[in-house]
Amino acid sequence: MSTDCTTSSASTLTRRSLVLGIPLVAAACVSPGGGPAGPWRAMSYAEMYGPVVEGQYRIPAIDTTTINPAFLRSEVSWTGPEAAGTIVVDPKARYAYLVQPGGKALRYGVGVGREGFAWNGNARVGAKREWPKWFPPKEMIEREPRLEPYREGMDPGIQNPLGARALYLYEGQKDTLYRLHGTNEPKSIGTAASSGCIRLFNQDIIDLYARVEMNAPVVVRA
């Protein structure tokens, strides 16, 4: 499904190894920094984006040879004024950053809202959900009548547009209806294809979710 929100074998990564970055192979590595989930040591892209099994849910591996490497998870220098723990989304560059101490940030490739559906502003993480249920807003159903069967929600799963995790953006106590979430369309990362929400690879949203605290500030640049 191409819509969006707005409103274990030896070769399979466990959730713990994915989130904490426990190394299995050292080749072709990136070296992201630490965060609330603990230090993240060097991992290969094959490890970082390998298959994930969480109970009944199965996330397939991402063929990173088909992805622009600029949109794969990495550690970068950070000179912005935002405090450590802040999420900064740069829709034009198609990146989300989690600011770290010491002038560093973890950078994730994202897909953003297509023209007419983008959102920007300051918010906070008002809720966190693992394998969330998806409720298309009534405006979306009006635009896309094929979504009518999901008016009462789509059950969690790999076909759910919110993917494995969702961070819900609030302005004060008001839900903006915008999310940072996983996606069942990995090739959409780096594009403007969503209905306003910020989508990440499922493997990346699992990592970001584990590192982000409730009420963490979120800045979505214009």
UniProtKB/TrEMBL annotation:
Q: Identify the InterPro entries for this entry.
A: LD-transpeptidase (IPR050979), LD_TPept_cat_dom (IPR005490), Transpep_catalytic_dom (IPR038063)
Q: Where is the signal peptide?
A: none
Q: Which GO terms describe its biological process?
A: cell wall organization; peptidoglycan-protein cross-linking; regulation of cell shape
Family, per entry: Belongs to the YkuD family.
Pathway(s) where this gene product acts? Cell wall biogenesis; peptidoglycan biosynthesis
Q: Sorted alphabetically, which keywords does the UniProt record give?
A: Cell shape, Cell wall biogenesis/degradation, Glycosyltransferase, Hydrolase, Peptidoglycan synthesis, Transferase
Domain L,D-TPase catalytic, by residue range, is 85-221
Q: Which organism is it from?
A: Agaricicola taiwanensis
The UniProt entry, under PANTHER family, shows: L,D-TRANSPEPTIDASE, L,D-TRANSPEPTIDASE ERFK_SRFK-RELATED
In terms of Pfam families, this protein maps to: YkuD
Molecular function in Gene Ontology: glycosyltransferase activity; peptidoglycan L,D-transpeptidase activity
Protein name, please? L,D-transpeptidase
Q: Which GO terms describe its cellular component?
A: extracellular region
**What positions belong to coiled-coil segments?**
none
Q: Where is the active site?
A: H181 (proton donor/acceptor), C197 (nucleophile)
